[in-house]
Amino acid sequence: MSIVKSLSERLQLKHAEKVIAPAEIQAFQHEWGKAEIETKLQIIESLDSIPEDASRRFLQLMTRQPNGVSTLIAIRSTLFKAKLSLPLATGLTETITANLDSGLQVQRMRKDSPRHIIDLFSSSDRVHPIASECRMIRRLEEVDRRVFYLAHFQNPAHPLIVVNVALTQGVASSIQKILDDDEKESGPDSAIFYSISSLEPGLRGIDLGHRLITSATAEMQNDVSLTNVTQFSSLSPVPGFRRWILKMMDSDQSALGNVKKIFEIANILSVETIGAENYSDFRELVASLDPQLLPKFSNSLPKLLFKYLFAEKGPDNSTVCPVCNFHVRNGAELWRLNFSANTAQYGMSESLSMMVNYRYYTDKMWQNSPAENRKDVFTWTVDINGRALMRLDDEKLERLGVDHPNHRYELLNEILKQVIFSLNSRVINELYSEAAIPRTVL
Amino acid sequence: MSIVKSLSERLQLKHAEKVIAPAEIQAFQHEWGKAEIETKLQIIESLDSIPEDASRRFLQLMTRQPNGVSTLIAIRSTLFKAKLSLPLATGLTETITANLDSGLQVQRMRKDSPRHIIDLFSSSDRVHPIASECRMIRRLEEVDRRVFYLAHFQNPAHPLIVVNVALTQGVASSIQKILDDDEKESGPDSAIFYSISSLEPGLRGIDLGHRLITSATAEMQNDVSLTNVTQFSSLSPVPGFRRWILKMMDSDQSALGNVKKIFEIANILSVETIGAENYSDFRELVASLDPQLLPKFSNSLPKLLFKYLFAEKGPDNSTVCPVCNFHVRNGAELWRLNFSANTAQYGMSESLSMMVNYRYYTDKMWQNSPAENRKDVFTWTVDINGRALMRLDDEKLERLGVDHPNHRYELLNEILKQVIFSLNSRVINELYSEAAIPRTVL
Description:
Chains A, B: GO terms for molecular function: malonyl-CoA decarboxylase activity. Two copies of one chain form a homodimer. Chain A is α+β, with helices and mostly antiparallel strands. Chain A has three domains: 2-103; 104-234, Aminopeptidase (3-Layer(aba) Sandwich), CATH 3.40.630.150; 241-340 and 357-434, no CATH class. Chain A has helices spanning 2-11, 22-34, 37-49, 52-63, 68-81, 88-103, 115-122, 133-138, 175-180, 209-221, 241-254, 259-274, 279-288, 300-310, 322-329, 345-351, 365-368, 377-390, 394-399, 405-422, 425-434; strands at 104-109, 145-152, 161-168, 190-198, 231-234, 333-338, 355-360. In chain A, strands 1-2-3-4-5-7-6 form a seven-stranded mixed beta sheet, sandwiched between helices. In chain A, helix 10 (209-221) links the parallel strand 4 (190-198) and strand 5. The first copy, chain A, is elongated and about 80 Å long. Chain A binds chain B through residues 9-10, 12-22, 24, 60, 63-64, 68-69, 98-99, 101-104, 152-154, 210-211, 214, 218, 329-331, 366-367, 369, 371-375, 377, 380, and chain B through 9-10, 12-22, 24, 60, 63-64, 68-69, 98-99, 101-104, 152-154, 210-211, 214, 218, 329-331, 366-367, 369, 371-375, 377, 380.
C-alpha cells in the first residue's frame, strides 16, 4: 500500500518506466505475495484510487517483471473473491488479455513436471476428481494419455487451464474406462478430451478453453509418435439433464389441469420414449440413482437427452446445456450420445449416466462455428441450433440412439419446425436441400 | 490480398478466433513473406480498408501465431518505407507495443549464435561499422566483451535492438582501443556501452533503448563471473559537434555588423577556449580532419564541447545533442568528455575526436531521470539541463576538462544563469545549497 503511494506521482509521468526501478515493482510483488486478504484489499483500493492512466502504467510495468502477468491475475482473483466491482477491473482485464495474446504457450504436463504443478493438477478436476496419486499418475502415462495446459511464457510453472486427453481406439464412450482402467490402450486412433478445468479464478470471464483445445490438438497433430491419431472428440458431461427430468416430472404432477401441457410432457417422458409401462421404474431410477436400474432405459435415455439438447432452449435461444454451447461454439459437432457412460455418483446424479461426444473435425471446425459470417449476437445463439440441426440426417439420428425409423422421421419433422421458427427463409431453403430423407419410414 | 478479402467478413465477428483457422493467418504470413513491395502495399491497403475493429482483430490473431509479432513489425516497416500514413498504423503500433510489454526478453549473442543473427549483427553498427569477420568476432569474446539484444520470446532469432559492451579496467575513453585492440582486458571493473543499434525499421518511434540498457545491466549484475564489474557507462559519439562549430565559424565571418554577436562567438571560439593565436590552426583542423592537428586542442575541444552540450539548447529547451538527451533521459549522468577518443574518419568528421561517457549509476539512475516528479513536457525538457547542471560542481568541471579555476568559476556562474532562467525559485534555492564553491579562484 505504501509502495503504491510512493509510486503514484511518478506513475502519472508519460515515461514512468524511466523513473520507477524494476526493483520497486518487484517489491510490490513481494509485499503482495505475503499479504493477508485485508492488506490485499487495501492495496487494491490504493491502486484504484490513483488516476486511470497512472494505474494503467502500473499494470503495464508489472507485465514486464518476472511473473508480472501472474501477479496481475492474482490481483484480479482477489477482486473477484471480494466481489469488488472497481474501475481498476477494466484495466486489469484488458492488460491481462493483451498480454495473453502473444504470451500464451501450450505445455505438456509429465510425470516429472515440477511437484507444485503436479499438485495443482491433482486437485484441479472438479468434474472427475482425481481419487489418488495412483489415479493421477495414470493420467500422465506416455503411452495413451496426455495432459496439456496453457501458461504465460514468463511463468511456465503457473498453469492457467488444463485439459486431460485419453488416446483410445475409436471414440471413447465410457469415462470409467478412461479414469479407472490401468490397461494401456493399443493402437489408439482417437484423442478424447475428457476433462477441461480452469486453474485460475483470476481469469474468470476470459475464455481460454477454445485456445487450449485447438493448441493441444495442434500439438498432437505435430507429434510424430501420434501419426495414427486422427480423430479428436470430447467425452463431455451433461450437468443439467437429470434436473430437467425432475422438473418435468414435477410439472407432470402439478399440471393436471392443463391438457396441452400434459400431452406434451407425456409425449416426451412416457409415450414416445420411456413407455408408460416403465414410468414408475424410471421414477425409481431418477430418485435412487442406482445404476442397476439403467439397462431398461438404454434406448429411452438417449432419446430424452436428444430432446433436452435440441428441443429445449434457454431464454437467449441457445441450448440449455452450457457444455454443449461451449463445444458447439468452438466449432465441434454433437456426434454421439453415450448411455452408461458415467455410472459414478456424479454421472448418475447429473445425467443418469449419459455423456456426449462433441467431435472436433480439424478441417471443418472453423467453418462449423455458428458465428460464421454472422455478427449479431442473436443470430449467433439461434444458429447454435440451426447449424447443428442442419447437419443432422437420418443416419446421424440413428447413431444418436433413435432406433425406430418412425421416431426419426418425427424428430426430423420437429427439428424442421424448430428451424423454421428460428431461421430466415434463405437458410430454410439450404436446409431443405441438405436434410436427407429417412431411409425407411414405417 | 485475396486472403484479407476472404477473412474480412469473419473478422467482424466478436469471436473471430473461432471461425478463422490459425492456418489461414499463417497462409497470410507466408504470402506476405514472399510478396514483392507492390503486392505488400496492396495487402496493406486491403487491411486498411476493412473496419477498424476487424483489422484490430486481425492484428490480435496474428500475435498468436508463431513469429506473429515479427510479421506485424514487418508490416509496420513497409508502412514506413512507403511513407504511408494510414489509420492501420495506430492499431499496429498499439498491438505491437502491448505485446512487447511482457514479450521482450534480453538475449546474449555469442560466437555460436545462429548464423543469420550473426549476419544481422555484423551489418548493424552504423556508428562504428564492423570492418571484418575478425573485428566482429572480437566483439563476442567471452573474456571482455558482451553483446545483448532484445527479442520477442516467440522469435528469439529476430533481434530487435542490440547493444555492444566492452568490459574494461576503468571507464574507457577511447573507442579505437575497444574496437581494434586484440589484447584482452585484465581485471575489468567497468561495463562500457559503446554502441547501440536498432535492427528494426519497423519499430521506429518505439523506444527500446532504455529497456535494453537496463536489462543488459541487470544481466551483468546477475552474472557471477562479473562480480568485479560495478561501473556502468556509455562511450558515446557527439554527432552534431563539428557541424555546430562550422556554423559558428560561418557566423563569425558573416556577422561582422553585429558587435554583441561577434563578442559572443569570439568568447566561445577564440578568447576563452581556443586562443586567438591558434584560431587558424583550428580552422585547418576543422577543415582537414587530420588527427595530427589535434594535440594543440586537447584543452580547448573539451571546453567547446562543454559549451555545446550545456549552453546550446534546442527549440524545446533540451540539449541539441540527441545522444545526450537519450542518455540523460534514461537517468544517466554526463560524466566525462574524452579528447582523442575517436580518431577514425567518423569520429573526426562528426566531433573532432571527442566522445562522452554517460554514466549509469544503477542505484541512482531511477532518481536521476529528469522526469522525476514532473509530468509536463516543458519541465521534462528544461530539466534535462537543470538536473544535470545541479549535479555539477568544481571538481566535476575539472574532470570535464576545464583546467583553469577561473574558467570553472565563470562556467558555474554561467550555468547558474541558465538555471535561473529556466527553473522556478524553489529549485533555485535547492541549487544554491547544492552547488559547491570552487576550491580555488585565481
